[in-house]
Amino acid sequence: MSTPQIPDEFLAKVARRATARMARTDRPFLAERVLGITAHRVRDRRLKADLLGAAADAQLSRGLVPRHLVQAYGAELACADAHLKAGRKKEAAAALTRALLLAFHRIPHVDRLHSPLSDDPAGFTARLRASTTARAVAAPRGRKTPPAVPPTDRPLRLLMVNRANANFLGLLTQRYADHPGIELRTLDLAADPVLAPLAKGLRRMIELPLGTQAAYAAEVEAALRPHLDWADTVFVEWCSTAAAFMTLVDPGNTRIVVRLHKYESFTYWPHIMDFSRVDDVVFIAEHMRELTTAAVPRLLATDAPRLHFLHNALDLRRFDRPKSDDARFTVGLIGIGQIAKDPRWALEVLRLLRARDERYRLMMVGGGIDPAPSAAATAYHEALEKDLAELEPTGAVRRLGPTDDVPGVLTGVGVILSSSVREGCHVGLMEGAAAGAVPVVRDWPFVAGRPHGTRTLFPEDWIVTTPQQAAERILAVTASEEIRAEAGRKASRYALSTWDWETVRSDYDRLLLGADR
After folding, report:
1. d(CA 287, CA 311)
2. How far does the chain reach from its first CA to its final CA, in angstroms?
3. d(CA 342, CA 479)
4. How far is CA 238 from CA 140, 267, 281, 338, in A?
5. Distance separating alpha carbons of residues 336 and 367, to the nearest angstrom
6. Distances (CA, A) of 435 to 285, 419, 438, 476, 499
7. What is the sign, positive or negative, of the torsion defined by CA atoms of 36, 38, 43, 48?
């Protein structure tokens, strides 16, 4: 005798009640379990996606990560695939867009101290890789001609592209603007009056490779073609909107180079890009290459772009200045504007230090955490402000806010701390080391235990895993000014010889110009 099927209408009613209950309690586990039992048994594909999506939205709006996040975005992908199979391409694109926005919502990956993607990059993205719609969007469309051999009878024409963020391009543009072997142009897609309105809009960038955006495709082709025809090589900064936009058209025989920093790995952009139109992908750290290729394994395919690891372009010699007399007991934290920087971890280190010697203080440089983006950001901001209200009045903490004179500030810092849970390379720490501050680096939890991470990026004796270990290292390296100064000089020599532009620029020359130019 067969078990009678429970009607979808009844299951949906129970699922909606569970969702409402999750919104009213700080302990939603029972309600989530009920949701899991009911919503997952719903047979109607669209209804299941709506129920799981609504429940996920309810949790995200409270700053929480839904336990069923993967199932929720997977249900939306199932709708996309059904639409695509039936020839409803616009509907498929709409469902894929919803799935991506849900899967890569900022709360699971940005506004928390760990991420389901970093915990299990292959597992978290498995459903996306299995989706026929997502695969169709990212399918290799290739180019009609291979990239041309660099010219020998004239300078190489290099186009550097970004979209409203050229923060790490300064030394590169300066280098190649003055290079006799290069003719340089720069293009900010957000500032160009023709390209700015075209270089945005996730859904239409998804629809175009599905063949439902002919007019938009023609506009993009017409707008980009003059730039691509002029350039021999295009260097695209950030593997995000600009890179996805540039690969919407066939680059012809122009070489395309894309640089990925960190945040892009926690977004949907690498998952919808056509990498068959990219020749080289540059990572600023080995652990970012490892994490990204685990989440996007087609980057390791035989026909994938060449993958490179090149340090960021940093002018560190300007930080090499004498220390002030009171630097020994000042711990510096450069950049505190993101939850990923985890300044509360630094405050715990400070408490442990001051329990031993009240001369220790923390100098926090940079803008504070914006509480507006999400409930999770609000909660962290409020907890941090409560900590600071306790510590600032005693003189234990000094907040400088943003400054244009970081080298000057660092003359008063004896120890530079990285309290982050994740980083690409942590520029502020590298600057502090170059300035002769002794580095103390938390083993960034997002990549701890992996083949590459803090322990392969920095010397082993810089690394700590707990606030207690951080405090003990700081106490040891500041036991006297002589000990601190010698450790600082050693750190500065390492930083300048490893990460300074004078060392790194030859790697970029080889990448962009070739060894013989």
Report:
1. 12
2. 79
3. 26
4. 20, 11, 10, 19
5. 6
6. 22, 18, 9, 19, 13
7. negative
Q: How confident is the model at residue 51 (pLDDT cuts 50, 70, 90)?
A: confident
Tokens of 172: 């590169």
C-alpha–C-alpha distance, residues 270 and 259, integer Å: 12
Q: Which residue has the tokens 């569970």?
A: 18
Pairing outcome for strands 255-260 and 233-237? parallel
- Beta partners for residue 159, in sequence order: 185, 234
Per-residue pLDDT, 3: 47
394 vs 203: CA distance, rounded Å: 52
> Per residue in 12-36, is it b (16+ CB within 10 Å) or e — as a string?
bebbbebbebbeeeeebeebbebbb
Q: Which residues contact 37 (CB under 8 A, 6 or more apart)?
A: none
CA–CA separation, 328 and 485 (whole Å): 8
CB atoms within 10 A of CB 404: 7
Q: What is the structure's pLDDT at 1?
A: 42
**Residues 132/81, Cβ–Cβ less than 8 Å:** yes
| Residue 246, amino acid | M
Give the global pTM: 0.94
Residue type, 229: D
